[in-house]
Amino acid sequence: MIDVAFLGTAVRPAGTAVVIDVLRATSTITLALASGYERVLVAGSIDEATALRTPQRTLAGEVGCARAPGFDLGNSPEETLEPRGAELVLATTNGAPAIVAAAAAADEVLVASLLNMAAVLAQLAGREDILLVCAGTDAKVSIEDVYLAGRLSAKLDGERSDAARIAEAVAAAYPNAVDALDASAGAVGLRREGLESDIAFCAQESIVDVVGRLSETVDGAALLTAAPAAAGSEPNRTPLIM
Ligand code: MLT
Q1: How far is the CA of 94 from the centre of ligand 1 (A)?
Q2: Of the residues 75, 142, 184, which should be mutated to test ligand 1's pocket, given the most ligand atoms within 8 Å of the CB?
Q3: Domain segments of the chain: what residues?
Q4: Are the CB atoms for 49 and 59 separated by under 8 Å?
Q5: Which of 15, 107, 131, 188 has its CA 20 to 30 Å from the CA of residue 3?
Q6: pLDDT tens track for 13-22
Q7: pLDDT one-digit tens code per residue, 200-241
Q8: Is the CB of 168 under 6 A from ligand 1?
Q9: How far is the CA of 63 from the centre of ligand 1 (A)?
Q10: Is 7 in the pocket of ligand 1 (CB under 6 A)?
């Protein structure tokens, strides 16, 4: 069964949970792993991320889309292009808590964005119990996450729930990813903070082949690493930048 949870707070047990926060947490995680960070520790809150700080770790995250006070990086994917070490710690408003919740509920957790859409589909081949988890924006359903859930659902084999069909209908309503992201609640905060270039960046499709996957939980944080390449695909760890 392919199902969709329209909010991160609606995560339920599943064989594979695929967490989606296109603007921007899962795009940032994907690009960080593709850029050379070996591990991304996803924290449930800013305070939890701060508690994970060590001299070797880089802290990234946002509050209201702006860089969290005292953090090394914000939540723009491109800020991860030049890794400062092996480990990135990330805390965000909706996407990071959705990943932490999925880690507690699902047998397997993957992280999806438009940037690695084809690689995610390759990873999902043969899976039978898939829950596409849309993080949402400020606890409300957001177009950009449902858009990607619909794009993924439409390419997967298997029975679909009504929620998956609704997501597919949303995806079909937009001629391209930029239009969907532009129309979303997630884009509003980015424009307010002068970060609108992140919208076009996150709308790029399948520019990296890396998929973040939950390895373990460490001090309450979800530790993500790059999943081994799916059968028939070679990992592309060199992001193509527009
Ligand atoms: C979130 O987790 O709410 C988002 O990633 C916010 C953002 O765009 O930074």
Answers
A1: 6
A2: 75
A3: 2-226
A4: yes
A5: 188
A6: 999 999 999 9
A7: 999 999 999 999 999 999 999 999 999 987 766 655 555 555
A8: no
A9: 8
A10: no
142 in ligand 1 pocket by Cβ < 6 Å? no
Ligand 1 mean position to 92 CA, how many Å?
5
Of ligand 1's listed atoms, the one at least distance from the Cα of 198 is 8
The pTM (predicted TM-score) of the whole model is 0.95
Distance (angstroms) between ligand 1 centre and the Cα of 14 equals 24
Which pLDDT tens digit goes with each residue over 88-111?
A: 999 999 999 999 999 999 999 999
Nearest-atom number in ligand 1 for the CA of 190 is 8
Average pLDDT, the chain: 95
